[in-house]
Amino acid sequence: MTDAWTAPRAIMPEPAPLTMPVQRFDGPPPPHDAPEPRAGVNLAPDDILTRRLLLVLLTGLLATAASASVKEALLSDGFNLLDGLLLLLFFPLFAWISFGFVTAAIGFILLISGAHPGITPAPRGAAPLTARTAVLVPVHNEDVEAVFDRIARMATMIDRAGAAERFAFFVLSDSSEAAEAEERAAWARLAPWLKVPLYYRRRTENIGRKPGNVAEWVRNYGAAYDFMLMLDADSLMGGDTMVGMAQIMEQRPSIALLQTVPMIIGATTFFQRWMQFASRFYGPISTAGLVWWSGSESTFWGHNALIRIRAFAESCGLPDLPGRPPFGGTIMSHDMVEAALLRRRGWRLHMLMVEDSFEEFPPTLIDQAVRDRRWAQGNTQHLKLLGSSGFHWISRLQLFIGALAYLMSPAWLILIATSIAQSLSDDAATVRAVTSTQVLVVTLILLFGPKLLSIIWAMADRNRRASYGGARGILASVALDVPLSILTAPVIALTQTIDLINIVRGKPSGWNPQSRVRDGLAAADAMPRYYWHLGVGVVLLGVSFLNPMLGAWLSPVTLGLLLAPWLAMQTAKVRPGERLAKKGVFAVPGSEVAEPARPLAMV
Questions:
Q1: By three-state DSSP, how is residue 307 classified?
Q2: pLDDT exceeds cutoff 70 at 511
Q3: What is the pTM of this model?
Q4: Which of 519, 516, 523 lies closest to 370 in space, CA to CA?
Q5: Residues 394-423: pLDDT tens digits?
Q6: Distance CA 30, CA 341 (A)
Q7: Which of 191, 244, 289, 468 could in theory staple to 103 by disulfide, Cβ–Cβ 3.0 to 4.6 A?
Q8: Rounded CA gap, 75 and 548, in Å?
Q9: Is the pLDDT of residue 196 over 60?
Q10: Residues 6+ apart with CB under 8 A from 332
Q11: Residue 474 near residue 459 (C-beta atoms within 8 A)
């Protein structure tokens, strides 16, 4: 055998420059220059507008019905400014959870009936693949061995799918100089033994973070490839899926992006196992509903997606936003903006439901919050882009929904504070409004209805039921998930609210490597993160003594905030998760990439 150190492949191929102009969000929109779908190929359902109108109508009806009882109680003894604020908060909050419920309910109806949300089988094997695909793996001070192990597995599966000569992997490093030697050594050991070419380069200047990293590659090497498969450092995909996606893109030239829905793998801590179960068990019906109304205006989540390079280059050169960070400067949540820019030029964007697209998840509640902080800043930046020239209305809606995901947290807390203020002013009507049986029932249905529908969906099929640990395992998992979800919801909401306050104060999020492996949290690490949570919990505990009825209503919030450090520490451990796994709790279908995967499906 040839020694890998003396005869590695070229560290990078010959340059193949491609122009990638910086886009504008104002002025006349660029022309629609994407090709139209080929004759006989229907890329979007004919009734897509009807679907979206139905979604909006049902969401509005549920939110109106839920708010009506609150309004009647508030008006029973007059109407004041705080009453108006409560109503102003109730409707959008109920609309938010109604939107999620309706999406999940539609997805459930589709899946339980055996139908698919506008999905048709991918044309696998109809013609040999001729397009060239670059698999981009941006890294930033990651676990080098784990990253290159995943690359080796994916490259091997691509080779077994018979497409090794049509793919190439690029490790695009933004790591520190100290990490370069280890990354180069890993590349040099692996590259000679793969039939799929593997390249590596490290930038000395980390301009523009990940989108800048990708844009630099596109401008220097993009012309040599037709498609790029965007991965994260923790991504893993099946070979047949990657080849099948390239076949779809090659045969349907009006598509610019195929986004898969990654599932969580590699769970070790209790928190990761819980999140893995929740996403795998509750996710399918919501995803089916999302695919149903997204049509050819899907969005981009930044990874585990195939992109047409020339469409991306001509559409997605990102400018810096005017002003200083956190609202100005580099666009943080670049993916949804890039999706909007692609659709602005007429390109089709679709979401795929596949079984072998994976990612990892932060190991603790605190690590998730650190990642969430970056997303909060990026998604609130999108509010400045809602009026951008030429954006499709669905793209604007997706950007707005992304921002609302974080704005809803302070809205819930303001609602609680307003209710407390009203109750302390001896406003009996307010207490009746926010603690009525009708409001409670509607809230429980909207919040936990999707979970119940997921249980029915999982139980309806013998193999699916068995893959989640059988009926006993499913019920035990849900019985543990529900109280944990109730307790951690206020913790996450207050954390997001604090993050938004810091963003408004001008404190940008950093760009630190993600923590992917952990076993336990020390109290010294957890307590400083939750001083505010404990303080607010103590205040709510005092309220419960002053108004027992309102206190009982708020008891899950109070208890969750008071237990925040304990929840973070207990769920960060590995051993409790392992014990539960042995009992079939939080069981999920096999999370390893299997081959061949179930046939690809496309909107």
A1: strand
A2: no
A3: 0.90
A4: 516
A5: 999 999 999 999 999 999 898 888 878 777
A6: 10
A7: 289
A8: 23
A9: yes
A10: 209, 374, 375, 377, 378, 381, 509
A11: yes
Residue 590 to residues 201, 464, 473, 521, Cα–Cα distance (Å): 34, 11, 15, 28
Retrieve residue 406's tokens: 């974080």
* 3-state secondary structure at position 351: strand
Q: Is the pLDDT of residue 469 over 90?
A: yes
* Residue 113 token pair: 């009936």
CA angle centred on 24, ends 22 and 26, rounded to 5°: 175
Which residue type is seen at 488? T
Beta-strand ranges (E) seen in 226-379 are 227-230, 236-237, 255-260, 263-264, 305-308, 348-352, 357-359
Calpha distance 331→210 (Å, rounded):
10
Q: Cis bond leading into 326, ω under 30°?
A: yes
Residue 126 has pLDDT above 90, yes or no: no
Q: What is the 3-state secondary structure (H, E, C) of 204-246?
A: CCCCCHHHHHHHHHHHHHHHHCCEEEECCCCCEECHHHHHHHH
Give the long-range contacts of residues 531-536, CB within 8 A, separation 24 or more. Answer: 532/494, 532/498, 533/491, 533/494, 533/495, 533/561, 533/562, 533/564, 533/565, 534/561, 534/562, 534/564, 534/565, 536/494, 536/561
| Cβ atoms within 10 Å of 440's Cβ, excluding its own | 12
130 SS3 class: coil
Comparing CA positions, the residue from 117, 115, 114 lying closest to residue 51 is: 117
- What pLDDT, in 10s, does the model give residues 244-303? 999 999 989 999 999 999 999 989 999 999 999 999 999 999 999 999 999 999 999 999
End-to-end CA separation in angstroms for the chain:
47
Asked if residues 558 and 547 have their Cβ atoms less than 8 Å apart, the reply is no
Amino acid identity of 107?
A: G
- For residue 67, the model assigns a pLDDT of 79
d(CA 36, CA 46): 15
Query: What's the pLDDT band for 434 if we cut at 50, 70, 90?
Result: low
Tokens at residue 133, please?
A: 């695909």
From the list 232, 2, 51, 244, the residue with the least C-alpha distance to 135 is 232
30-66 pLDDT, tens digit per residue, is: 988 888 876 555 566 778 999 999 999 999 999 888 7
pLDDT value of position 600: 41
3-state class (DSSP) for residue 114: coil
Q: What is the mean pLDDT of the chain?
A: 87
Show the tokens assigned to 436. 């009525």
Helix axes 81-112, 428-435, angle to 10 degrees: 10
Tokens of 211: 């989108």
**In degrees to the nearest 10, what's the CA dihedral of 262, 265, 269, 274?**
50
> What are the angstrom distances between the C-alpha of 419 and each of 92, 448, 509?
16, 23, 32
